[in-house]
Design brief:
Blueprint: H1 21-29, E1 39-49, E2 56-62, E3 65-70, E4 77-82, E5 88-93, E6 100-106, E7 109-114, E8 119-124, E9 130-135, E10 143-145, E11 150-153, E12 158-162, E13 169-174, E14 176-177, E15 180-181, E16 185-191, E17 194-199, E18 204-208, E19 215-220, H2 227-230, E20 238-244, E21 249-254, E22 259-266
Parallel strand pairs: 1-19
Antiparallel strand pairs: 1-22, 2-3, 3-4, 4-5, 6-7, 7-8, 8-9, 10-11, 11-12, 12-13, 14-15, 16-17, 17-18, 18-19, 20-21, 21-22
């Protein structure tokens, strides 16, 4: 999936005359119109089974499998999931004291946040062997990586950039749209140079420029999980974004959803 660049061409009048003071003052005082943020819809490419008992908090794709962090006290876990069948092929439960949250992959290590315990865990990718623990002062919500740093959300409008080995904060950016903060940033995914963020309690994903924090696009996933698929389940809100850069495939699901979807974005 490639980002779309929009070029604006400004034409000038080939006149030797300088603008009058009135014209110059008018140009300075004229309010600048906000650039409209595009809203993308979607097309479902494929539908896959998803464990309806998985309260999805973190999701990522690697080498043919999904890796998932699930929440709820007494039910939180780290999972390796077969994409086509939804079968859990590897599972490590968290202690009942912890509520699992965001998940990121860095090298051969998985890093998992917890909600309010101010503690995260590092595991070896192939075995889920615990390697280390780390601390942070905020709640833990979403986690992803741009290949150099970790990017974390805590439910506010701030994205935190952290060292992938020490977890020390090395920067942060405020996420804004039309000059106003965008809060409730939840599950995160790095997608072709942008941060995709679930907005908690909505069917919307924000596409964020990680340098400026500006929202450069909205993805409206209203109606993705049909009423028929919700019936008989405990399905809650949309949450869970995974991206396969090699295949340019985008996957989304939700908390206790019985389905996971590969989608294609449709430009407005």
């Amino acid at each position: 999936m490639k980002s779309t660049a929009i070029a604006l061409l400004l034409a000038t009048n080939a006149s030797c005359l300088a603008p009058s003071d009135d014209v110059a003052e008018s140009a300075v005082l004229r309010p600048q119109k906000s650039v409209e943020i595009p809203t993308y819809s979607y097309r479902v490419v494929c539908t896959f089974p998803h464990d309806p008992t998985a309260f999805t908090q973190g999701l990522l794709y690697d080498d043919g499998f999904l890796y998932e962090s699930t929440g709820q006290y007494g039910q939180s876990s780290l999972r390796k999931v077969a994409l086509k069948t939804g079968a859990v092929v590897q599972l490590r439960p968290l202690d009942d004291r912890f509520f699992g949250e965001g998940l990121a992959l860095f090298g051969n290590r998985l890093l998992q946040l917890t909600w309010r315990a101010n503690k995260g865990f590092v595991y070896r990718l192939n075995s889920f062997e615990p390697l280390a623990e780390f601390a942070y002062p905020t709640e833990g919500w979403g986690l992803t990586s741009d290949g150099e740093l970790l990017i974390m959300s805590d439910g506010s409008s701030t994205l935190y950039f952290r060292d992938p080995f020490t977890f020390a904060e090395v920067g942060r950016v405020a996420v804004v749209a039309y000059g106003s903060p965008v809060s409730q940033l939840n599950e995160l995914e790095w997608v072709a140079g942008e941060v995709f963020a679930n907005i908690w309690q909505t069917d919307t994903i924000a596409r964020i420029d990680p340098t400026s924090g500006q929202v450069v696009g909205w993805i409206d996933l209203t109606g993705l999980l049909s009423d028929a698929n919700r019936r008989g389940s405990n399905a809650e809100v949309l949450n869970g974004i995974a991206y396969d850069p090699a295949g340019e495939r985008l996957f989304v699901t939700g908390k206790w959803w019985p389905k996971l979807y590969q989608i294609e974005l449709v430009s407005p």
